[in-house]
Write a structure and sequence with these properties.
The chain has about 550 residues and is an alpha+beta fold. It folds into four domains: about 5-165, ibrinogen binding protein from staphylococcus aureus domain (ibrinogen binding protein from staphylococcus aureus fold); about 170-260, no CATH class; about 300-430; about 445-555, no CATH class. The chain has helices at about 5-15, 75-85, 185-195, 200-210, 220-235, 260-310, 315-325, 360-405, 410-425, 425-430, 430-440, 465-475, 505-515, and strands at about 25-30, 35-40, 45-50, 60, 85-95, 100-105, 115-120, 130, 140, 240-245, 250-255, 340-345, 350-355, 450-455, 455-460, 480-485, 490-495, 525-530, 535, 545-550, 550-555. Strands 14-15-17-16-18-21 form a six-stranded antiparallel sheet. Strands 5-6-7-8-9 form a five-stranded antiparallel sheet, with helices on one face. It has a four-stranded antiparallel sheet with strand order 1-2-3-4. It is elongated.
Length: about 550
């Protein structure tokens, strides 16, 4: 991530245009790593985000609303105690490092204003926020560090603030480092290791812009150093802008007529999107883990049932043993035997060797075989039904896995979570009346994917609950229903409005159905289609599970762009 000293300086240059003289009105701490200052300045209210997360360390003005805890954390309460109604007198950095210094003064105390500093160190996992008094004594900090615990400096209340140690120099001194070039293998490594505030992303972007290579020679070195020095100078004039670069971002020189606060607004969008993506991935993984665990348990249960069914394969043999022993009992000696050889009149009177329990008489062995036969027969009937139900459950869970993997945002996952709750929550079943009442208030939540194909509207469900809503509540009986054959996917509805679509239109809709399915990577997907009136929901079937008749099948290539 490229929140380096250059980006911080660009942020500070913009902040100095709007926050100097502003008053801190509110202070929030939405999570353990972030503090937000609400600042009233020039008749406007700004929100300054100070984030010390190891993944998102940054400082910028934000427009994103965040939920705050009901009880403010201790550090937030301390900042409120010390900084409420303080005015911002200066915003700067130290040695072009990732250290933000916000100078503050007690504006309400006209005769004896009290000066304080808020220091924000943006250094990966070592990021921190510190409140200092006028003598640079630490009042408190978000995180505490102790030398005796392995830290290289003390960070806790009532100690003198010491700057982080660094051997790097400013890019303006680049001429003095020419003698060190031979100690490095690449231009990028040299600049990142020796100059303050420079990230790898900034250097790579500059190398591409200058159309030079990463070879470490004197010419490349001077060209790159002069460009970065120019960039540093333009930052102070507010002539730089943030740009996206290789899934990251960096700065470039621009005209002075750029959008006001462009760097801050860019960072706000970038980190908001990044945080949403991280939340989305975390949420999705949690749902996948839950469903995977359920699949594992059911698969284990199904494996046990298969073992029982395998044992049941011998039930006819036990019945035969019982019958033969009973029919030939008059010929069998009334003594304890380990086995007996009898004629099998079901198989051309061939001799069959029947094992016996030596501890009991032959007649009791016959009873034992009949008992085992009836037990296995009952077992076969019961576990056979159980297997069918478990296979349906596995099929349904696999459909949810597909939904989760195909989801695009947190709203999609919320709908899937509601479906999971609806299907598996015993608490919900116990409070079904309450749930119905809740549903009636909310109404339909269906927001399907919508396409326009040859003048027709095409609706695509994003999860099983939506599939049911589309097919059985929204679609008309003469609309056309599509679904990829024998594979998990979305229900697709072609809204006909009593018109007859061409075969070309039907094929396009089938391609959309294939695209929104597990057959998306297939070059030839089979898609069934039929009128909605021929699609039925079996009694007690899970969400999205249907049966249909009168279907036709087309083979298409998955596609959504026509």
């Amino acid at each position: 991530m490229a929140f380096d000293g250059f980006v911080l300086n660009a942020v500070i240059t913009e902040l100095n245009t709007c926050l100097i003289g502003g008053k801190i009105q509110k202070i929030y701490q939405p999570n353990s790593d972030e503090v937000i200052l609400s600042i009233y300045s020039n008749n406007l209210t700004y929100a300054l985000s100070l984030n010390t997360s190891s993944n998102f360390y940054s400082a910028y003005l934000t427009t994103s609303k965040k939920e705050n805890p009901l009880v403010a954390p201790n550090f937030c309460m301390l900042l409120r105690k010390h900084l409420m109604n303080y005015k911002i007198t200066g915003i700067s950095t130290i040695n072009h490092e990732r250290i933000l210094v916000i100078s503050l003064s007690d504006g309400d105390n006209e005769y004896k204003p009290e000066a304080k500093k808020l220091i924000v160190e943006l250094m990966g996992k070592h990021s921190n926020i510190l409140l200092l008094d006028a003598n640079n004594i630490i009042i408190d900090s978000l995180k505490h560090f102790y030398i005796e615990n392995g830290a290289y400096r003390n960070i806790f209340p009532h100690v003198q603030y010491i700057l982080p140690a660094s051997n790097k120099v400013n890019i303006s001194d680049y001429k003095n480092l020419e003698n060190k070039l031979s100690n490095f293998n690449s231009l990028c490594d040299f600049f990142v290791e020796n100059f303050t505030g420079i990230s790898k992303t900034l250097v790579i972007n500059a190398i591409n812009f200058l159309d030079i290579n990463d070879a470490l020679n004197l010419n490349n070195y001077n060209v790159l150093a002069k460009y970065i020095l120019e960039l540093q100078n333009e930052i102070t004039k507010n002539n730089t802008e943030a740009i996206t670069f290789e899934n990251d971002y960096t700065l470039q020189i621009c005209e002075s007529s750029k959008e006001p606060l462009q760097v801050n607004l860019f960072l706000d969008d970038y980190y908001s999107n990044k945080k949403r993506q991280e939340q989305f991935l975390s949420y999705r993984n949690q749902l996948l883990q839950f469903i995977s665990a359920k699949l594992k348990r059911i698969s284990k249960k199904l494996s046990g049932i298969d073992e029982k069914l395998k044992e049941c394969q011998n039930l006819d043999k036990y019945k035969l043993y019982g019958e033969l022993i009973t029919n030939f009992l008059y010929q069998i000696p009334k003594e304890h035997l380990s086995h007996i050889e009898l004629t099998n009149y079901y198989n051309n009177n061939e001799l069959i060797d029947i094992p016996l329990d030596i501890s009991i008489l032959p007649a009791d062995n016959a009873k034992k075989y009949f008992k085992k036969y009836h037990k296995l027969k009952n077992t076969f009937s019961i576990v056979g039904e159980q297997k069918i139900e478990l296979e349906k459950e596995i099929d349904y869970l696999e459909s949810i896995v597909y939904e989760i993997q195909a989801s695009k945002n947190i709203n999609d996952l919320d709908e899937i979570y509601d479906e999971i709750q609806d299907s598996f929550s015993s608490k919900q079943k116990q409070n079904s009346k309450k749930q119905v009442k809740k549903k009636s208030k909310k109404g339909t939540l269906v927001e399907p994917i919508v396409y326009e194909i040859d003048g027709f509207k095409v609706l695509v469900g994003k999860n099983n609950k939506q599939n049911d809503e589309l097919t059985f509540k929204i679609a008309n009986k003469d609309d056309i229903w599509f679904h990829v054959k024998d594979i998990h996917g979305s229900h697709v509805i072609l809204v006909t409005n009593n018109l007859v679509p061409s075969q070309e239109t039907i094929n396009k809709c089938a391609s959309i159905a294939a695209y929104h399915s597990k057959a998306i990577q297939s070059s030839n997907a089979q898609v069934d289609y039929t009128l909605v009136k021929y699609v039925k929901k079996p009694k007690s079937a899970k969400h999205g599970m249907v049966i249909y008749t009168n279907q036709k099948t087309v083979i298409v290539k998955p596609n959504k762009d026509f």
